[in-house]
Write a structure and sequence with these properties.
With 307 residues, the chain is of the alpha/beta class. The protein contains 8 helices and 16 strands. A 7-stranded mixed sheet has the order 5-2-1-6-7-9-10. Strands 12, 13, 14, 15 and 16 form a 5-stranded antiparallel sheet that branches. It has a two-stranded antiparallel sheet with strand order 3-4. Helix 1 packs parallel to helix 6 and helix 5 packs antiparallel against helix 7. It starts with a strand and ends in a 10-residue tail after the last helix.
Length: 307
């Protein structure tokens, strides 16, 4: 039998899970998401979240409460008489009364291998830290920060050519399939929960733009992982001829020199150890472009440096 589900999510990452749950016959009785924010060219038009846009197309009721802590919010939530709630990057802490409302509980899809990278930016932090793998986990939500008991997991290798958006998209699809399987197990009473280990707990703090400047004194692989972990947003950057340039994609390369030194005419840049070659970048105020296109308009060669 299909479950009666409340879905709670906000960004693009959440949408595949919502669509997969619907396609597998579950009844989405309501979608909770964050309120629209000003956007558009002039910043004046309210922009609904990707989850709200998807829910509207499905004809599902959408709610955008500013808080879930009032008696009115709890009464409204309970009125949907849901079997369970599915939470995917909702962006709001759920109080205990909300967690207790669905008959079978609330289940969160988290983009890391818990307890590593609890918190706001697990995808970025996993890449930036040089992790060999990431993954998705379904856990039963409690009042802590990603501390709930874990039900199911899927792992995914992180390669050096993977940017944050690459990993985001793959985990989003992988997570949608995992949550569908978890809800099927929950429906038949076979979803088993296991407490998280207290060993290896790390926190994925929200990305601060102050972290984005590239430190060329680090080894090449650390520089590459820093660049890819921040691509495309906020974008790791350096200065070239006193102009800021975001580097969005690169690869390891052979070569050595003073950190930040341009080693050839193919945008090979020296690091503290070895070098990287820039593949894709973005000049301040311009669109992203391939390195070859950039070099046709801006010749870059030794002895220039990226500061």
């Amino acid at each position: 039998m299909p479950l009666r589900l409340i879905f709670m999510g906000t960004p693009d990452f959440s949408v595949p899970t919502l669509l997969e749950l619907v396609s597998h016959g579950h009844e989405i009785v309501a979608v909770y998401t964050r309120a629209p924010k000003p956007g558009g060219r002039r910043g004046l038009q309210l922009q609904p979240t990707p989850v709200e846009e998807a829910a509207r197309k499905l004809g599902v009721p959408v709610l955008t409460p500013k808080t879930l802590k009032t008696p009115e919010a709890l009464e409204e939530f309970r009125a949907f008489d849901a079997d369970a709630a599915v939470v995917v990057a909702y962006g709001m802490i759920l109080p205990q009364a909300i967690l207790d409302a669905p008959k079978l509980g609330c289940y969160n899809l988290h983009a890391s291998l818990l307890p590593r990278w609890r918190g706001a930016a697990p995808i970025n932090r996993a890449i930036m830290a040089g992790d060999a793998e990431s993954g998705v986990m379904v856990m039963k939500v409690d009042v802590g920060l990603d501390t709930g008991d874990v039900a199911m997991a899927e792992r995914l290798p992180i390669t050096d050519n993977m940017t944050a958006v690459d990993l985001h998209d793959r985990l989003s699809r992988l997570g949608a399939d995992l949550m569908v399987r978890a809800m099927a197990a929950l429906d038949r009473g076979g979803l088993q929960l296991k407490k998280q280990s207290e060993d290896g707990v790390t926190y994925a703090a929200k990305i601060d733009k102050a972290e984005a400047r590239i430190d060329w004194s680090k080894p090449a692989r650390a520089v590459l992982r820093h660049i890819h972990g921040l691509s495309p947003f906020p974008g790791a950057w350096a200065e070239l001829e006193n102009a800021r340039v975001k580097i969005l994609r690169c690869e390891l390369a052979k070569g050595s020199g003073e950190p930040g030194a341009v080693l050839d005419e193919q945008l090979t840049i020296a690091c503290g150890e070895d070098a990287i070659r820039i593949i894709e970048l973005q000049r301040e105020g311009k669109g992203r472009m391939q390195a070859a296109d950039f070099l046709r308009g801006v010749p870059v060669k030794p002895p220039m440096r990226l500061a």
